Amino acid sequence: MLNIEKYGAVDIGSNAIRLLVVSVIEQEGKDTIFKKTSLVRVPIRLGAEVFLKGKISENSANRMIDAMQAFKLLMKTHNIKRFRACATSAMREAANGREVAEMIENKSGLHINIIDGNDEAAIIASTDLKSLIENDKVFLYVDVGGGSTELTLFANGTNVISKSFKLGTVRLLEGLVHDCIWDDMETWIKKETKGFKRVSVIGSGGNINTIFKKSGKKIGKPLSYFYLSSYYELIKSLTFEERITELDMNPDRADVVIPATRIYLSAMKWSKSKNVYVPKIGLSDGIVRSLYNEKIAEEMEVN
Predict the structure, then answer these.
(1) Closest among 99, 103, 83 to 91, alpha carbons compared
(2) Which ranges carry the Ppx/GppA phosphatase N-terminal domain (predicted)?
């Protein structure tokens, strides 16, 4: 007999706000299935103003309220049983981030958790990454967002270490990343992966998902360093308009894809990885998994 419930997760990032709806299917004597039912993305680029001006504008705050009210209606329609919203670097760095979060809660009734980089990395790491890649014992998970990049090193099925860097696509576009940040990430990756002979990268984020989709690769097959570097040279050679018309990219993707690809290539180079796997998981998936783990813990306490 199956027990099916729908969970909702909202990821308020620096480049976009996303609502993920997942059907959690429990089977007696078998592993629980997490089936993605719906994903809605609204490109409210909070990072562009927060990283430059230090606060969220009234216009963006109103757009966020509208988006969250729409998400609330969608979750009601989906009959969501458990829900959580998490905001990352843009809202946590905005001087009025908590004020806007309270405003959204008053208007929509949805509470927003503003999490730090370490919490973000831990939530992402709660997804069952190891089961997605067979025969790989060591891999570096690289989640590239608009405001930050979260890194997690896994070895022998264990989360070894995680680190968050203020190195994101929107920051790079705005020229707000100093060389020392790149140097810090290079040093960290080389140090943490030094003792392993073979490291594969797992790429997460809308940009690597877009690149993977356009590659025509089958799900589960990796992109090579050579392919990604060739793609990087291609997109750099095209204008913003050409990336939209010739590569069929959305306007809010066509600019950030270049700095994102640079970050993935750098992580691969520094970890000496030849391949990057793209399983299409991220913070939203981690939120859902965390909600489910909490449910299991509650049931154990009752029993």
Answers:
(1) 99
(2) 41-291
138 beta partners:
155
Q: Domain containing 210: what range?
A: 129-281
Question: What's the half-sphere exposure (Cβ side, CA atoms, 13 Å) at 145?
Answer: 31
The answer as to whether 42 is a domain residue is yes
Side by side, the strands of the sheet bearing 223-224 are 158-165, 149-155, 138-144, 200-204, 275-277, 223-224
Query: Do 133 and 253 share a domain, yes or no?
Result: yes
Same domain, 100 and 192: no
Give, to the nearest 10 degrees, the angle between helix 58-78 and helix 97-108.
40
> Are residues 72 and 188 part of one domain?
no
Burial of 239 (0-12, 13-18, 19+ CB in 10 A): exposed
Q: Are 88 and 120 in contact (CB under 8 A)?
A: yes
Instruction: Provide the domain count of the chain.
Output: 2
> 294 in a domain, yes or no?
no
Sign of the C-alpha dihedral, residues 64, 66, 67, 71?
A: positive
**Residue 214 CA: distances (Å) to CA of 112, 167, 209, 231, 240:** 34, 25, 9, 10, 17
Answer whether residue 135 shows pLDDT above 60.
no
Cα 99 to Cα 82: distance, rounded to the nearest angstrom: 25
Look at residue 133 and tell me whether its pLDDT is greater than 70: no
Q: Which residues on neighbouring strands pair with residue 277, listed in sequence order?
A: 202
Distance CA 172, CA 255 (A): 11
User: Does a structural domain hold residue 287?
Assistant: no
Would the pLDDT of 17 be above 90? yes
Total residue length of the chain? 303
